[in-house]
Amino acid sequence: MPFSNLVKGFHVFQHKYFHENGIYQELTSKGQHPEALVIACCDSRNDPALLLQSKPGEIFVVRNVAAIVPPYQPDDHYHGTSAAIEFAIKGLKVKDIIVLGHAMCGGVQALAEKEKTAASHFEFLTQWISIGEKAREQVDQKHPGLPPDQRQRALEKEVIVASLNNLMTFPWIKEGVEQQRITLHGWYFDMMNGKLLDYNFASCVFEEFGNPAPEEAVLLHCHSHGDQS
Ligand SMILES: [Zn+2]
């Protein structure tokens, strides 16, 4: 995409949202009131607003490599993802949290091939994706010998479940879920087949929306409401 196309894109956006309708008049005078927090991967093919066709102000989005939620660690380190989650919950009082992972995730591939990643020139990636190490162990223990493609698909989904579990380590999220003020969702964008899958907390499988049949017979580690054992 030539760089000038990005500026042209802004002009299209400007015409639609500033000249044709008054969406930003309302959003600037009344502030933002998004109902959902979406935690998504940085991948350029996985833009939540585009994928979900949401309007400005509807979803509060934090993106990072592999859509990972780190565990609750209130220390003096720089927790960008946790800060965004905190603002969405405590500041904006969102009701739904969606962890949106996707197929062919480079971040998950870096986790799947962590020895290769560790030996690379990346300075921050190895440490970041190590949050998913337990997910990797679980996939390899439960499904030893999977072909690389299938192993990666399973790991992409297991990392979503790990992030859901990590969300429950935040005390104010756990409390909100238990009091039914907050609902967690694990979504998986299958970009090879153009499908959106939803994690079923009861059966521990990802299912296509509107289609209750399991997408595949790979059972994942169940969401354990904060139990990290
Ligand atoms: Zn990704």
From TrEMBL:
Signal peptide positions (record): none
Obligatory cofactor(s): Zn(2+)
The keyword Protease belongs to this UniProt entry's keyword annotation: no
Record: residues binding Zn(2+): C41, D43, H102, C105
Molecular function via GO: carbonate dehydratase activity; zinc ion binding
EC annotation from Swiss-Prot or TrEMBL: 4.2.1.1
Organism domain of life: Bacteria
Cofactor note as given: Binds 1 zinc ion per subunit.
Enzyme class: lyase
Function statement: Reversible hydration of carbon dioxide.
The protein's name: Carbonic anhydrase
Species this protein is from: Micavibrio aeruginosavorus
Lineage: Bacteria, Pseudomonadati, Bdellovibrionota, Bdellovibrionia, Bdellovibrionales
